[in-house]
Amino acid sequence: MSVLDKIVATKREEIAAAKLATPADELRRAAERAPAPRDFFAALAQERPRDGGPIKLIAEVKKASPSAGLIREDFDPIEIARTYEAHGASCVSILTDEPYFQGKLEYLRDARAAIGIPALRKDFILDEYQLLEARSVGADAVLLIAECLTPSELKDLHDAAVALGMTPLVELYEPENLDAVLESGARLIGVNNRDLRTFEVDLGHTLRMRERVPADRLLVGESGVKTHDDVRRLADAGVDAILVGESLTREADIGAAVDRLMGR
Ligand SMILES: O=C(O)c1ccccc1NCC(=O)[C@H](O)[C@H](O)COP(=O)(O)O
User: Fold this and answer.
1) Which residues does 95 contact at the CB level (< 8 Å), separation at least 6?
2) What is the pLDDT of residues 149-181, one digit of tens each?
3) Is 192 a known active-site residue?
4) CATH no. of 3-262
5) Span from the CA of 220 to the centroid of ligand 1 (angstroms)
6) Which intervals hold domain Indole-3-glycerol phosphate synthase (predicted)?
7) Is the CB of 22 under 6 A from ligand 1?
8) Ligand 1 pocket, 97 CB below 6 A?
């Protein structure tokens, strides 16, 4: 069983337990009371690199991961999110998975309340219930992973996220999943450079997919972005945004790491 399969199996158990603890109707009412969504898509869509604008940064608040183990011991999600915003990130991504990434939904709620830029719930979304959870703590966007969903589940979750006012970032690793991603209606497409089954990282994965993603969709290069040279390669190829976690949260001075990465 791959790590991704294990994460998905654990997630199904978590969702079943959460539904017993908090019924969906209750969560829907909480979602209705949540702060209005910020426009995650618009934050990335202005002045695209293909039109001479800068590549945008989605900076990830990430404490640990299956591939790296513990990344940051003195982990303060609010402080990290504030630093990202102060150093020019367009959006933040906040891991909420607990067993594998040591994340929490509360990190998203608290960090998002402390900043003015949009926030994505980074988790393994399999069920509409998790979209309600995300919106109830203020998420502006959610990640949907093609490798974890059937094409019809992907489309249904995409549409349900949009109906709740959130931007779905629809991710793929396997090139053969691109059709399902495009058919889901995704306007924001992420290509993960990390094979979630083997953890091998190859930046060239996003570069090779660039030509296959229609120009009217925004493309995000995800995972394994470490240096300003990496960022330049992606920007030069017309990639609209990067999603970066480990190479920033591992650093003692996160603000300086963002500046270095973005060449500021
Ligand atoms: O990061 C992992 O080890 C991982 C393992 C299994 C499933 C997903 C995983 N990561 C999720 C991500 O996509 C990354 O957190 C994100 O793209 C940022 O990547 P990085 O900059 O390499 O931390």
Assistant:
1) 60, 61, 62, 63, 101, 102, 103, 107, 122, 123, 245
2) 999 999 999 999 999 999 999 999 999 999 999
3) yes
4) 3.20.20.70
5) 14
6) 4-261
7) no
8) no
